[in-house]
Amino acid sequence: MATLGTKLRKLRDDKKMSQSQIEDMLGISQSAYNKWEADQTKPNIDNLVKLAELHETDIYDLLGEKSIIQNNNDKAIGNIQGSVTINHTFSEELINNILKNQQDISKLIESQNKLIENLLKK
């Protein structure tokens, strides 16, 4: 299985982009991106999402064979229920960040629904 760094390097080469072009687009240091491609560190979730968008792929394809999180065999980050399978080649911190972001999104949706309900009552 290809590492995240190998995938980033191949995707960048496929787009004929330099590291500095990607660094400028993401607003990160040369050192940070270089370490990602060298598999010395991993990007945080925000940068991982930006990289996936830049390369027109998703974070699952960047991080693992098919996905790092599987919900009842569905490729989804959505509402995680049931058994969760974690590909152990990735840091637990990254998984925790993804789950925290999911919780934050759920809270935001809940808040928006309450606001809509209150507006409809008026």
Strand and helix order: HHHHHEEEH
Approximately what portion of the residues adopt beta-strand conformation?
5-15%
Oligomer: single chain
Structural class determined from secondary elements: mainly alpha
Number of distinct helices:
6
CATH class: Mainly Alpha
Q: How is the CATH topology named?
A: 434 Repressor (Amino-terminal Domain)
State Rg: 17 Å
Order of strands in the sheet with most strands = 2-1-3
Q: What is the name of the CATH architecture?
A: Orthogonal Bundle
Q: The biggest beta sheet, please?
A: 3 strands, antiparallel
Describe this structure as you would to a colleague:
By secondary structure, this protein is mainly alpha-helical. The chain is built from six helices and three strands, in the order H-H-H-H-H-E-E-E-H. Strands 2-1-3 form a three-stranded antiparallel β-sheet, with no helix packed on it. Helix 2 crosses helix 3 (30-37). It is elongated and about 55 Å long. It starts with a helix and ends with a helix. Mean pLDDT is 77; it is low at 65-89. Keywords: DNA-binding. This is Helix-turn-helix domain-containing protein. InterPro entries: Cro/C1-type_HTH, Lambda_DNA-bd_dom_sf.
